[in-house]
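Comment thread on ticket #2218

A.B. wrote:
> Attaching the input chain for the structure job we discussed in standup.
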Amino acid sequence: MDQEPLRGKLTGAGSVVALVLLEWTVGWVAGAAWTQSWKTVKRGHFRITAWSTGVLGALALVAFRASSPDGATVQSGLVIATVAAVFLYLGAQYLESDGPAVVTGALVGILGASALGAIGGLVEGWSAVIAGATLIVGALFLGAVTNGMMLGHWYLNQPGLKPWALARLTQAALVSVALSGALGSIAAGKLAGAETEGAILG
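C.D. wrote:
> Ran it. Output below, let me know if you need it in another format.
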């Protein structure tokens, strides 16, 4: 007989999907805002990013609302605010200046990190601090890698774009890997016996 999820806790494969989508959205937008602040990459790159993250953010919100436990009012509110800021970031890409997009992208990063940190307290069987920090570092990693991949392809559309731009994102990805490794070492014992209820492979 299937066990009921713990009341007030995130558990199961649906929650994993929601968290990954949220991490990806937050990291991608925050990384793009950082890149846009350099004023060296053309606007088309960021419009592609904004539309893509708008879709991801909407999916993250739907997935989180479907899997979040009763009583997660603060976390749900932060997720809604984060996704709303993603759409502000999208709208800002059609303004004349890069400034509003950089500001709204940074806002997505702040709200998203707050949401992920708060959600860490809902993850079943994990310390709120470790879980929250791991989710935030995961967003940093996904953001650096995705922005690096997108920017690497954008070099084909913008001849003359300097390689230091991609190098910065590569460095950010390496930092996130180091942080993830450090957190993984702290939680090694817990990770060794971790299971995801509802996952095909256990």
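A.B. wrote:
> Thanks. Noting for the ticket: The chain has one domain: 13-187.
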